[in-house]
Design goal:
This protein is α/β, with parallel strands linked by helices. It has helices spanning 20-26, 63-76, 105-116, 148-164, 178-188, 209-214, 236-248, 262-272, 282-293, 299-312, 323-330; strands spanning 36-43, 49-51, 59-62, 80-85, 121-123, 140-141, 144-145, 168-169, 195-202, 252-256, 276-280, 317-320. The strands form 2 sheets. Strands 1, 2, 3, 4, 5, 8, 9, 10, 11 and 12 form a 10-stranded mixed beta sheet that branches. Strands 6-7 form a two-stranded antiparallel sheet. The relative contact order is 0.14. Bound molecules: ligand PBG. Ligand PBG binds at residues 125, 127, 129, 137, 172, 208, 211-212, 225, 281-282.
């Protein structure tokens, strides 16, 4: 669309910016707590939380505390939370069997939250990295992250999460063929209404650093994830991935990281018009929090501005560690 501008002074674009009333009347996008998905980290134990140094304000929570967080989220109007498990080195194995155990901490949390707060949607993460001895999202054979054997494990993981009561499965592994395999297994297991929010355009990003601290993966990870996550130089490839994931049965797609990749969000939304989410990842959160703590930025203001930018870029919602803080401000 080409903007039409009659010459000054007929057009004074500042006219519509002169008061809060006029500005709110013509504002094109809006942000509400219903746009937010809150990622939370769960760990073994009871009634405890441990801070994550590189993510000020974020903690790992025991399941009972995660239930309290889900109650808080629901009361704030946040429609979904996303669960990530913390696993220590001692729980990691080469076969990653804990990933599809109904008793792993993530599946325990899903059941407890579903029971206590049935109206909140529970999202999961599907990838082997929290359980893998080498920190990779897939099995490693002779130094190679193998695709097809990994997909078989991801399917088992997906079914265990669906059985536990998850509403939204989030495959974050970037293996090829995983969406089709998970979708077909869900159909066979009569979980046809479980939704898939695919981490579709997930880049091999250094902005995930603090998250890897949070889930205990920093020490575990050998090498990088560049043979499966996307090259930050690419943009067209994101559209091929979205087309592929939709054709395989994804209900929603995600771009990750968020702020440095808003161009990808816009291209995806324009090209496909499907529910599109961005993940404002740990490193983005850490940057804003660090600057705010130093008094270099107004923390609340940049938080709200950054979240609005996702809406402007075409996103329907955002996964963000700021979810409860932003919802509190939005609720006045
Ligand atoms: C694991 C996973 C990662 C994130 C979400 N799921 C890290 C990675 O791929 O190494 C990152 C989230 C964040 O940085 O906030 N598959």
């Amino acid at each position: 669309m080409k903007p039409t501008v009659t010459p000054f002074p007929a057009t004074r674009l500042r006219r519509l910016r002169q008061s809060p009333a006029l500005r709110s009347l013509v504002s094109q996008n809006s942000l509400s707590p219903s746009d937010l998905i809150w990622p939370i980290f769960v760990m073994e134990g009871t009634d405890a939380e441990t801070p994550i140094a590189s993510m000020p304000g974020v903690t790992r929570k025991t399941v009972d505390r995660a239930v309290s967080a889900a109650k808080e989220a629901h009361a704030l109007g946040i429609p979904a939370i996303c669960i990530f498990p913390y696993t220590g080195m001692e729980a990691r194995t080469e076969d990653c069997a804990l990933a599809w155990s109904p008793e792993n901490i993530s599946n325990q949390a899903i059941r407890a939250i579903k029971d206590a707060v049935p109206d909140i949607a529970i999202m999961t993460d599907i990838a082997l990295d929290p359980y893998n001895i080498n920190g990779h999202d897939g099995f490693v054979e002779n130094g190679e992250i193998v695709n097809d054997r990994t997909v078989e494990a991801l399917v088992k993981m997906a079914i265990a999460q669906a059985e536990a009561g998850a509403d939204i499965l989030g495959p974050s592994d970037m293996m090829d063929g995983r969406i089709a395999a998970i979708r077909s297994a869900l159909e066979s297991a009569r979980h046809q209404n479980v939704t898939i929010l695919s981490y579709t355009a997930k880049y091999a990003s250094s902005f995930y650093g603090p998250f890897r601290d949070a889930v205990g993966a920093t020490a575990a990870l050998t090498g990088d994830k560049k043979t499966y996550q996307m090259d930050p130089a690419n943009s067209d490839e994101a559209l091929r991935l979205v087309a592929r994931d939709l054709s395989e049965g994804a209900d929603m797609v995600m771009v990750k990281p968020g702020m440095p990749y808003l161009d990808i969000c816009r291209r995806v939304k324009d090209a496909f018009g499907v529910p599109t989410f961005a993940y404002q990842v740990s490193g983005e959160y850490a940057m804003l929090q660090a600057a705010a703590q130093n008094g270099w930025l107004n923390g609340d203001a940049v938080m709200m501005e950054s979240l609005m930018c996702f809406k402007r870029a075409g996103c329907d919602g955002v996964l963000t560690y700021f979810a409860p803080a932003a919802a509190k401000i939005l609720n006045g």
